[in-house]
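Input structure tokens:
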């Protein structure tokens, strides 16, 4: 097994260099109010855990969730200082993820034979959920038994009936590939056969390490790095059903879900049950960036996303302030992020085609000595 880097190793390969806001290309053109909205949604979860951001959290509480772009720009410039990531581990990279929209059934019937399961009662966390993406190959969850902790069944074992006697089924899908992708994405919006809709979100995993089946197929010569997208991977899996089962079983990780109450959230949830915002929520490696950290992401060649969300300036690429609100097993490194694209097929196409070089600038809190006052009356 590969062990996680030690704290000293992280410090040696990762540094933050203080810069000025004027050094951020595209900063003045960003929609700061949208970034503030995402930050505000994280404030409640941060109140008890992010003492360094106390001043910003208190100010946001006074300002409320909706403020103007100029006011939001002043907020970030007042309470934070930008620090450019300097690291020697691997080139910066952003990918994308999304919330699938799928058809399903509450009962196993007809074409709906593929179960989505809730969390088993004997599943226990070995690490905090916010840290699960920073563990590398170690177990993150285990099964609690009368004699101690045991490794949970693999994806293959669960698919072959290891949990079939526990009545964990929430609903059923018609396509095992849809289930696999939904587990990779961590959430899903399901329209049932009675036309009611339910939202399912991540609620734990079997604790075994994630394996990229896309990388497996590239190594087998089925795809090149350039031709591999989520869409082409899905087509291959559906066209090669017998091989697809074996390939998907290469990823031993298995995700459990829970149904989100409509009063709880109006969108998919990240870490700390924060509602994710397309183009503003970022999954990160929490060894380097705590949940709630504002991060300015520059991916100059990522124009497709910008075209979807800011059609007036597709030529400027992706340069936006995002908030660290999620984690992922494949998101490892100080300049590695997963951009949340939204819900549905278009979001899925954009997310699946995103794999671009990127540069991160982390916003760290100013000391109270260096701050000026932001009032609710500023335009």
């Amino acid at each position: 097994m590969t062990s996680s880097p030690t704290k000293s190793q992280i410090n040696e390969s990762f540094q933050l260099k203080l810069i000025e806001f004027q050094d951020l290309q595209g900063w003045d053109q960003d929609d700061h109010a949208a970034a503030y909205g995402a930050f505000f949604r994280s404030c409640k979860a941060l109140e008890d855990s992010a003492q360094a951001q106390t001043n910003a959290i208190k100010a946001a509480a006074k300002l409320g969730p909706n403020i103007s772009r100029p006011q939001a720009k002043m907020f970030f410039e007042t309470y934070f200082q930008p620090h450019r990531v300097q690291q020697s581990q691997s080139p910066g990279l952003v990918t994308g993820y999304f919330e699938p929209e799928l058809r399903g059934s509450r009962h196993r019937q007809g074409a709906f034979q593929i179960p989505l399961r809730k969390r088993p009662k004997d599943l226990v966390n070995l690490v905090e959920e916010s840290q699960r993406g920073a563990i590398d190959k170690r177990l993150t969850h285990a099964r609690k038994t009368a004699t101690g902790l045991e490794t949970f069944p693999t994806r293959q074992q669960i698919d072959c009936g290891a949990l079939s006697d526990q009545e964990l089924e929430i609903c059923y899908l018609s396509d095992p590939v849809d289930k696999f992708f939904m587990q990779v994405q961590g959430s899903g919006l399901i329209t049932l056969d009675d036309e009611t809709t339910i939202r399912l979100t991540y609620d734990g995993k079997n604790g075994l390490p994630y394996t990229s089946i896309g990388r497996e197929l590239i190594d087998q010569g089925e795809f090149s790095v350039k031709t591999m997208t989520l869409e082409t991977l899905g087509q291959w899996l559906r066209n090669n059903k017998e091989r697809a089962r074996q390939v998907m079983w290469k990823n031993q990780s298995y995700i459990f879900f829970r149904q989100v109450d409509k009063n709880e959230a109006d969108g998919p949830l990240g870490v700390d049950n924060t509602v994710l915002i397309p183009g503003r929520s970022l999954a990160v490696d929490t060894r380097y960036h705590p949940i709630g950290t504002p991060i300015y992401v520059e991916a100059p060649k990522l124009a497709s996303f910008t075209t979807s969300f800011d059609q007036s300036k597709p030529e400027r690429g992706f340069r936006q302030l995002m908030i660290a609100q999620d984690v992922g097993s494949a998101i490892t490194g100080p300049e590695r992020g997963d951009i949340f694209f939204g819900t549905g097929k278009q979001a899925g196409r954009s997310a699946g085609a995103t794999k671009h070089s990127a540069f991160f600038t982390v916003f760290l809190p100013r000391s109270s000595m260096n701050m000026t006052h932001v009032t609710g009356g500023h335009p």
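The longest strand covers residues 197-205. Residues 32-46 form the longest helix (15 residues).
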